[in-house]
Specification:
single chain; about 120 residues; alpha/beta; Transcription Regulator spoIIAA; 3-stranded parallel β-sheet
Length: about 120
């Protein structure tokens, strides 16, 4: 079992995490030698959707690449909700697209005829 390092995500200046760069900075400061991590979100009042998106992308990539686990602890309900919403958008292997036909009309009368026929 790997040892676990606890990392405080915020300090007094950073209790609002809003940019992708802030998420990248957090993960750049971690040393992935041979330990798991607990990211302590105490005092973090807000994270933006872009921060959460970059956070999940980096977290998943680094967990796979270094065979490590990154746990989130002491997060507020607002932070958990944002992370949960964004987690649903991650790893979508197959996206569903609907094919919508496009019609072109050279005359306004043709368009009117088409619209009245529906």
């Amino acid at each position: 079992m790997k040892p676990t390092k606890k990392i405080l995500v915020s300090n007094k200046e950073k209790n609002f995490l809003v940019s992708r760069e802030a998420a990248s900075t957090l993960f750049n400061e971690l040393n992935f030698s041979d330990s798991d991590f607990e990211l302590d979100f105490s005092n973090v009042e807000f994270i933006s959707r872009s921060y959460a998106d970059q956070f999940y992308k980096l977290k998943d990539d680094l967990e796979k690449r270094f065979n490590t686990k990154i746990h989130i602890i002491n997060a507020s309900e607002e932070v958990i909700n944002m992370l949960h919403v964004v987690s649903k958008t991650q790893n979508l292997n197959e996206r569903n697209f609907e094919k919508i036909p496009v019609y072109r009309f050279s005359k306004m009368d043709n368009l009117s005829d088409y619209l009245f026929s529906i």
